[in-house]
Specification:
47% strand; seven-stranded antiparallel sheet; 15% helix; three-stranded antiparallel sheet; 3 helices; globular; alpha+beta
Amino acid sequence: MTTSSLRETLSRFATGVIVLSVGGDNIHGMTANAFSSVSLEPPKVLCCVSHSAVMHKSIISAQHFGISVLGAEQEHLARHFADKNRPLGHEQFSGFDWTPGPVTRSPLMKGALAWLECELAEYHDSGDHSIFIGDVVNASSSAGTAGLLFFNGEFQPISSITE
């Protein structure tokens, strides 16, 4: 099996899109779709980050992270925080509406569907990524109903279906 065939196969799995962020001295954000709930009691989530990503060192250093679950109208945020040529530090958030999380001070993007703040509980190396497990210390959601998905290599909007 090749990396390209695996990428093609996994592109058939629709995922939500988040901006993963870290506040403090090493403020940073990145787009991710490897995110999942782990446990409701106690509340835990996970995200996977490449060893080569700036975010990898940022999470280990800060020991916390924030998550903004992007809405259908926020594809521009997903593209910006996925761009490896964007500026780093505070400048990467310039021109975007965000607020520091009340617990971790991680940037949380305004207009998102939901926000979580996590304290790093543990992490595990697996292949070329680490699986970061966070204890959820704050969570909230908006009234938005249209989400942003990543499917077949493209961003796709999805709305709640009501009868």
